[in-house]
């Protein structure tokens, strides 16, 4: 079992724990939603997704985000997962990021999709 994110306590007053699959999914979302400079001891952690949500939506923005998100996930979570695909689509006012990955520990395939800055 791993520590749940965001940090919380369970009904017994202990640190909440989650299974490994949920923990890695939480960490993928953490990398996507953290802006570089936000973490004091890791100023280069994150991929700037939240700032790009408010930028002018375009195919160029989608391509830039694909590269930065892929690099951030590889750098910070490369020992836990292998990104199989990462696609960013820009449709009208919506920016959608889909990450398909393989868990290193189990070999299982999983995916995370965030749309307009909200996990789905």
Automatic annotation (TrEMBL):
Sorted alphabetically, which Pfam families does this protein's record hold?
GPW_gp25 (PF04965)
Q: Which InterPro entries match?
A: IraD/Gp25-like
**Which superkingdom does the taxonomy of this entry point to?**
Bacteria
Q: What is this protein called?
A: IraD/Gp25-like domain-containing protein
What are the IraD/Gp25-like domain coordinates in residue numbering? 22-106
